[in-house]
Design goal:
Blueprint: H1 4-23, E1 28-29, H2 39-42, E2 46-47, E3 50-52, H3 66-72, E4 75-83, E5 88-96, H4 108-114, E6 118-129, E7 132-143, E8 146-156, E9 159-161, H5 164-175, E10 179-180, E11 183-189, H6 195-212, H7 215-222
Parallel strand pairs: 1-10
Antiparallel strand pairs: 2-3, 3-4, 4-5, 5-11, 6-7, 7-8, 8-9, 8-11
Length: 227
């Protein structure tokens, strides 16, 4: 929670940078200036005590139309992982090279109900890792007998964002250098009637993933750098 004084300072900064953005209009995608992104190679098929399950036990929900997904994202990775105890998590990572407002990824709390799910809870939280904390949202959804707790976060550029306010700040920072930020939606969920147990499993999976990949990939997926 930010203080009122901090909020005023940030608002003033946003106003000032908005004026600058009128002159410096972003026209270059930041993604085009760095190494190409490949979610398929970035995310291991085995990590910690988790392994990919090729024959997916439960369908990974993509609660958006193909046309919208193609517009919002340039890459989408969906996998199911199972651990040594037989617990399964479903992972969906959607990457877009342009994360400005007109192409902002739709939030799961909007898209799940649009596909017929009931949204029972939607809470902000922090997911602790040895590299820092990730600002996340935790949902509890259901459709018929399927109960699906969800943990997700957004990144814009090299930062995980916790609100539209902070998203705008990152966009303005990029815009002042003439760049358009990329970003992604990282979502992990499971079929589980016990949300607390599911969220613990999600956190365990995320931690083992971040430990298994190099720093550059970790920064991309979570907005976290060195430990």
């Amino acid at each position: 929670m930010i203080s009122s004084r901090t909020a005023v300072v940030l608002a003033a900064l946003m106003f000032a940078t908005s004026l600058g953005a009128v002159v410096v209009r972003p026209d270059t995608k930041a993604a085009d200036k760095g190494p190409a992104i490949s979610l398929e190679t970035m995310v291991p098929h085995r990590l910690g005590n988790w392994r990919e399950e090729p024959q997916q036990f439960a369908q990974v929900v993509n609660p958006q139309t193909k046309e919208l997904l193609d517009k919002l994202y340039s890459q989408i990775l969906t996998r199911t992982y199972v651990n040594d105890d037989g617990y399964r998590v479903m992972v969906s990572i959607a990457y877009g090279s342009d994360q400005r407002d007109e192409l902002q990824a739709h939030k799961p709390e909007v898209c799940y109900p649009a596909q017929g799910f009931t949204l029972h809870s939607n809470e902000p939280g922090m997911l602790p890792t040895e590299f820092g904390e990730i600002p996340v949202r935790r949902l509890f959804t259901s459709m018929g007998p399927r109960q699906e707790p969800v943990t997700y976060w957004f990144t814009v550029g090299d930062k995980a964002i916790e609100s539209k306010f902070y998203k705008r700040l990152v966009e303005l920072r990029y815009g002042l250098t003439g760049q358009i930020p990329d970003g992604l939606l990282f979502r992990v969920s499971s079929i589980d009637p016990d949300p607390a147990r599911a969220y613990r499993a999600h956190a365990l999976f995320v931690n083992q993933l971040l430990e298994a990949i190099p720093e550059s990939s970790r920064q991309r997926l979570s907005g976290l750098g060195r430990s």
